[in-house]
Amino acid sequence: MAVSDSPEYAKLEELWLDPSNPRLGAEKIAAKLDQEELLDAMRDWELEELADSFLESGFWIQESLLVVKERHDGAIRLVVVEGNRRLAALRCLKLAADGHPISQKWRELVGKRKLDQKLFGRIPFLLVGSRKELSGYLGFRHVSGIKEWPPREKAAFIAKLIDEDKLTYAQVMRRIGSKTETVRRTYIAYRVLQQMHEHDEKIDVAKVEKKFSVLFLALRYQSVQSFLGIDLEMDVESARAKHPVPAKRVECLVDLAYWLFGKGESDPIVNDSRQIGKFEKVLASQAAKTYLKTARHPDLDTAYFTAGGEEGEVFSALESASSSLREALGAISGHRRSQRIQESTIKVGRAALELLRGFPSIRAELLADENKYDSATEAASKRKA
Q1: Fewer CB in 10 Å around end: N or C, the chain?
Q2: Which residue, among 33, 13, 40, has the nearest Cα to 98 in the 3D structure?
Q3: Where in the sequence is the domain holding 209, given as residue range(s)?
Q4: Are the C-beta atoms of 81 and 143 separated by less than 8 Å?
Q5: CA pair distance 288, 306, nearest whole angstrom
Q6: CB 145: neighbour CB atoms within 10 A?
Q7: Are 79 and 128 in contact (CB under 8 A)?
Q8: For 231, left (φ over 0), alpha (ψ -120 to 50), or beta?
């Protein structure tokens, strides 16, 4: 049996929150939280908006929970593997209805409403044969599909498929509908996060988890991979895959975490994922890395300048402009009387003059060449005359 095609119904107290829900994060999953602790861990999952919907419209059968039967606390339980937010919202709503709201907001949400007890006594669910049978659906829905989990939770789900279900990168790709390269980098990024947990006295792991997508994006760059000693091409069965950062590079991992995510009251030097390209160039420069490690309050712009990054950008811009001008010169002869072309030529000329003011020796050399050209042209004209 994969997923039952007919719904069943259960009372609120018969349904269990999933202690292995990927959204909890590896640390909370490993802690094996009880039901009360799980509900507390889910309080900031925007449950109030779901509860408000339940109060207005009830619990629709189209939103049936997906449930597996598993043994917990010495008995077979109905564990919700899809729909934990809905179940948590119902539990918080029931607490508020019974006069024990978890916050003032829940007290106000319930107010003096008379709740339909069917909301808690007749909850629709579909029974699933096993978690494994459901993994493809969850992967497509929450990793590649219409109701995506946050990046860290996606990574935790992919890691579960690889570490527990023993799937290869290609098999995970086919199951969840993603690219193999994305699956590989996501898994490696998650394993790097787990290594950070091993050194949480030096790394502010909570900040890393909050901005996990930054770590995922950073690992795309070769200089970041080299800095950490990571080989993204390593096979999933390799022992290194679970500990991608070698022991001798742990201090580099600590440095990277500090620069990308900060620690405590210290802010990161990378404040936006769009700055990772700059950061990648910094890591490729020994001088820039030395600056980051030795400066009391390092900043990305100074490190980037130290790495010669700004010079490279200026060079690329000038090369691009030169190429565009050469292309235009090849076709300009038939358009010299065009008003648009003349106006554009004036803009280019003024920009060129402004640029040359910063290079007086080059300007003098070019003017000398232009004078020689004019003299040669005048001499040729006289000979023809």
Answers
A1: C
A2: 13
A3: 151-284
A4: no
A5: 5
A6: 13
A7: no
A8: beta
Q: Which residues contact 10 (CB under 8 A, 6 or more apart)?
A: 67, 78, 123, 125
**243 and 273: one domain?**
yes
- The residue with tokens 């004036």 is 346
Give per-residue pLDDT as tens, 270-328: 988 788 888 999 999 999 999 999 988 888 988 888 887 666 666 667 777 888 888 88
User: Who's near 280: CB < 8 A, 6+ residues apart?
Assistant: 218, 221, 222, 223, 224
194 part of a folded domain: yes
CB 4 within 8 A of CB 128: yes
What's the pTM?
0.53
Question: For residue 310, which of 322, 300, 295, 324 has the smallest C-alpha distance?
Answer: 300
Q: Are residues 162 and 269 in the same domain?
A: yes
**Closest by Cα among 7, 14, 12 to 121:** 12
The identity of residue 93, as a single letter, is L
Q: Give 66's strand partners.
A: 82, 126
Place of tokens 């094996």: 32
CA distance 68 to 127: 6
Query: Could you give phi then psi for residue 27, rounded to 5 degrees?
Result: -65, -45
Domain boundary among 95, 129, 163: 129
Q: Is residue 357 part of a domain?
A: yes
User: Which stretches of the chain are assigned E, i.e. beta strand?
Assistant: 8-10, 15-16, 65-72, 75-82, 123-127
Same domain, 276 and 155: yes
The answer on 245 and 171 residing in a single domain is yes
